Amino acid sequence: MNLVEAGLGAAVAAGLLSALLALTFPRRMRPVPVGVGTAVVGAGGAVAGAGALAGQSCSVEFPALLPLFGASFAVDELSGLFLAVTGGVAIAVAVYGIGYARHGLDGRCVQAMTPLFVLAMLLVPTADSVGTFLVCWELMALTSLVLVLAEHRRRDTVVVAGRWYAVMTHLGAVAIMIGLLVAAGHAADDSFPALRAAAATLTPTAAGVVFVLTLAGFTSKAGVLPLHAWLPRAHPEAPSHVSALMSAAMVNLGIYGIARVGFDLLGGGPAWWWLLVLGLGALSAVYGILQAAMSADLKRLLGNSTTENMGLVLIGLGAAGLFASGGDRVLAGVALAAALLHVINHAAFKTLLFLAAGSVLRATGSRDLDELGGLRTGMPVTTWCFGLGALAASALPPGTAFVSEWLLLQALIHGLPASGGATAIVMPVAVAAVALTAGLAVATFVKAFGVGFLARPRSSAAAEAVESPPGMLAGMGLAGAACVVLALLPSAVLPAIASVSTAISGRAQPAVSGVITLRLNGVAGALSPLLLIAALLAVAAVFFAGVRLIAARRAPRAARSWDCGAGPLPARTEYTATSFAEPLQRVFDDVVQPEQDIDVTHHRESSYLVHAVEYRQRVPDRLERRVYEPVLKLFAAWGETARGLANGSMHRYLGYGFYTVCGLLILLVVIR
Amino acid sequence: MNALGVIGGILQCLLVIGGAPLLIGMMRQVRARLEGRAGAGIGQPWRDLRKLLRKESIAPHGTGEVFRVAPLLLVSTTAVVALVAPFVTTASAVSPVADLFAVVALLALGTVALALAGLDTGTAFGGMGASREMTIIALVEPTLLVSIFALSVRVGSTDLGAIVTSALHDPARVISPVSLLAAVALGVVIIAETGRLPVDNPSTHLELTMVHEAMTLEFAGRDLALVEWASAMRLTVFLGLLANLFVPWGIATSAAPLALLVGVAAFVAKVALLGGLLAVGEVFAAKLRLFRVPELLAGSFLLALLAVAASFFLAQPH
């Protein structure tokens, strides 16, 4: 029995057991065993993933488990990476969840679903046949849907979010199902090895259909444009630790699906597939971060940032496919390493950010940045955790995203001179998209951290906020530690990524090597995050000592703020998140198209006297309005029309039946 | 890490730290003379710094560590860039940090620290300055990255030392459409990033128009000294980058004392010349309205993008 089998076995056993405990234990005693159980599930997944990345494999079949096609599971390097990431996220979330559950989330159903959701996410990358994959995928969708709806009694918006999520995730699942069934129709059976063998015999059209259909399904799960609409709805409304699981682990499985189908099952493909992936990625990255920059809802902002980060991952994935289709394995390896490293980094910092946001939500009851502020005094640990996450997310030096975006830009920059036509246009635009994303991400996270946590409290709830219980802090601490390690020593996870990209791209040499200094193999490029921080700290120490030496020896004095001599103004005069984003919103006016209206109410006595002025501004999702609303309207109109057909008259229904049978008979006669 | 890099790094640091206030003094003097004033002399910024360093430091009530650490972080990030970028020598003291992306991100980190400090004061002006600064940086950073990328495509590396060395070996490349487009784009974003006219007026204290000053209103004493010093250093560093990316001649490629001396002299001359030109330009420029600035930056972004496209079409296969 190797690590993979042991880990997965432990995960399945712990998952089922903790779900059972959740159903049997009384409410007060429920969160602790379930949290511990979920952490064991996560640990099992992480161990199995580590084993798979170290080269161990595992393959099991249960012919009797599922009717008709049985269930088969196999773990390779690619599965291993996603197992490890999901497991790692689950550990931090489970520890956090023990404390967070007291927040009214200790119901039987929610508690039982959490370990099952984690388990389902672990099973998806291990599935080795179309049937098994679809069942696991559906299990993941259903358990997450139940968790999204956990707080439906408290807010009406939860139900709306749940409906969006349910519809979109199932439409995505249908697309994946049709795509994989088309592929399976050309193969001997529905197992992945058979699909791999049959990939060479597929016609380009059939392969293209399979890829595009599965891409649609997987990008809807990853929250990539234009199928992102569920994400900024479901992430804010789900309980925060569930948002963390969904945003840091579940969306990754969309990426896994694209990599599995595109690179592994179909064995790469023509350049246009990957240009499509890259284009979708670039669009999502810029659009996602723009929406995040405008957003004043803390969790919605983080959800939009997930769209952005998945976009960056898709840029890497698309570039890797593009280079591979052009025969450049070196650059394909670099781009793939960038994409996978960003998956890991994103999982770490998004877990941290969502958990910190949950901590804020618990303490203040608000997600609205315009009502927060000044949390630093009441909640120092949460503040620093969020600050660390924000630093990591904004691609600034001692942050995790900095390293992966550097890798991504390296791949794009080296890809430019080597290739022809389409790439010459795509690569500069992709570089510009990544660069624009980096700039906007900085503004977004300065807003989130500066307005939400620094400054003075803008509401009494924020002023009276107290720090979360130690269990929640421990969960955040785990995610924070992962962020720090990934930021300073990305070489800790690079061997794992190298083994995955070797398995996929077929190049024996890892794309990136080095412990302290990361060096690209095959192309020029080196970066050392650790040396950078060391240099920064050393220079800061020199400056600190130097200033101490020459400056006045008086201790810093605290005084009331000068504020241009106006004196202490109330917190109402502070810049809010909305006002902070206003200049950016004005700059991107044509893209985001904000809606504004002003209602002026006059006194009844005279229209010259104004009673009240109300100003409302909203930044709706423009894409949603252009793409989704027409479709929804069409369906609504269809429903309205169809209503006239069914008026309750039995005669009419019998008539329908009669004419349908007649029509069918005529049709049969004609076809024959 | 080699001897040339270490010597060069220390020289560059000393030059930038000591010379930045003099550069500001010189620019003010040029402006004063052109406007028909006598001016305070080149050494005035140094005298200001000395005075500020002797005053006590005051932190507003309710501010925290972010506010206290920001000046130090701002000045350190700039000094690290001065340490690693190719100003006097082509070698770098800490070569894996002399990457284009790392340098741009380091400078952005300093800006972010200052913006957070502005927000931390909880005053309307601090927030306003931070919001404006972040809007500008969100537009500046892409242009900065894309335009230097246009230069790095033909070298095949984003290492600043490699870009400068390649320009030294192949002077013909410097006079190409790529360089010209990139130089104009870089020039515009450097003006925006360092808060000079027409984007921001460094000598204004009119609340409605200011960007940089609004964030630093609450600093006093040695903190203010550090912030002012850092902003002078940032200007020097940016002008130095602009100078050496396009006109690298004179930079030292060996550790011989004469070469280093020539390197120092060339760097000082180039930065002083660029600073003088900037000051002359500022005499004739009026400040743009805040919401006209993005148009300027979008224009420079387009130029940078064109530079990348041109660099592809002009790239020689290697």
UniProtKB/TrEMBL annotation, chain A:
<feature type="transmembrane region" description="Helical">
    <location>
        <begin position="238"/>
        <end position="259"/>
    </location>
</feature>
<feature type="transmembrane region" description="Helical">
    <location>
        <begin position="162"/>
        <end position="185"/>
    </location>
</feature>
<keyword id="KW-1003">Cell membrane</keyword>
<feature type="transmembrane region" description="Helical">
    <location>
        <begin position="271"/>
        <end position="290"/>
    </location>
</feature>
<dbReference type="InterPro" id="IPR052175">
    <property type="entry name" value="ComplexI-like_HydComp"/>
</dbReference>
<feature type="transmembrane region" description="Helical">
    <location>
        <begin position="78"/>
        <end position="98"/>
    </location>
</feature>
<feature type="domain" description="NADH:quinone oxidoreductase/Mrp antiporter transmembrane">
    <location>
        <begin position="127"/>
        <end position="414"/>
    </location>
</feature>
<dbReference type="GO" id="GO:0008137">
    <property type="term" value="F:NADH dehydrogenase (ubiquinone) activity"/>
</dbReference>
<feature type="transmembrane region" description="Helical">
    <location>
        <begin position="333"/>
        <end position="361"/>
    </location>
</feature>
<keyword id="KW-0456">Lyase</keyword>
<keyword id="KW-0560">Oxidoreductase</keyword>
<feature type="transmembrane region" description="Helical">
    <location>
        <begin position="530"/>
        <end position="551"/>
    </location>
</feature>
<keyword id="KW-0812">Transmembrane</keyword>
<dbReference type="InterPro" id="IPR003918">
    <property type="entry name" value="NADH_UbQ_OxRdtase"/>
</dbReference>
<feature type="transmembrane region" description="Helical">
    <location>
        <begin position="310"/>
        <end position="327"/>
    </location>
</feature>
<keyword id="KW-0472">Membrane</keyword>
<dbReference type="GO" id="GO:0016491">
    <property type="term" value="F:oxidoreductase activity"/>
</dbReference>
<dbReference type="GO" id="GO:0042773">
    <property type="term" value="P:ATP synthesis coupled electron transport"/>
</dbReference>
<dbReference type="Pfam" id="PF00361">
    <property type="entry name" value="Proton_antipo_M"/>
</dbReference>
<protein>
    <submittedName>
        <fullName>Formate hydrogenlyase subunit 3/multisubunit Na+/H+ antiporter MnhD subunit</fullName>
    </submittedName>
</protein>
<feature type="transmembrane region" description="Helical">
    <location>
        <begin position="105"/>
        <end position="124"/>
    </location>
</feature>
<feature type="transmembrane region" description="Helical">
    <location>
        <begin position="130"/>
        <end position="150"/>
    </location>
</feature>
TrEMBL record, chain B:
<keyword id="KW-0472">Membrane</keyword>
<dbReference type="GO" id="GO:0005886">
    <property type="term" value="C:plasma membrane"/>
</dbReference>
<feature type="transmembrane region" description="Helical">
    <location>
        <begin position="232"/>
        <end position="252"/>
    </location>
</feature>
<keyword id="KW-0456">Lyase</keyword>
<keyword id="KW-1133">Transmembrane helix</keyword>
<feature type="transmembrane region" description="Helical">
    <location>
        <begin position="134"/>
        <end position="154"/>
    </location>
</feature>
<feature type="transmembrane region" description="Helical">
    <location>
        <begin position="72"/>
        <end position="94"/>
    </location>
</feature>
<feature type="transmembrane region" description="Helical">
    <location>
        <begin position="6"/>
        <end position="27"/>
    </location>
</feature>
<feature type="transmembrane region" description="Helical">
    <location>
        <begin position="296"/>
        <end position="315"/>
    </location>
</feature>
<feature type="transmembrane region" description="Helical">
    <location>
        <begin position="258"/>
        <end position="284"/>
    </location>
</feature>
<feature type="transmembrane region" description="Helical">
    <location>
        <begin position="174"/>
        <end position="192"/>
    </location>
</feature>
<dbReference type="InterPro" id="IPR052561">
    <property type="entry name" value="ComplexI_Subunit1"/>
</dbReference>
<feature type="transmembrane region" description="Helical">
    <location>
        <begin position="100"/>
        <end position="122"/>
    </location>
</feature>
<dbReference type="Pfam" id="PF00146">
    <property type="entry name" value="NADHdh"/>
</dbReference>
<keyword id="KW-0812">Transmembrane</keyword>
<dbReference type="InterPro" id="IPR001694">
    <property type="entry name" value="NADH_UbQ_OxRdtase_su1/FPO"/>
</dbReference>
<dbReference type="GO" id="GO:0016829">
    <property type="term" value="F:lyase activity"/>
</dbReference>
<protein>
    <submittedName>
        <fullName>Formate hydrogenlyase subunit 4</fullName>
    </submittedName>
</protein>
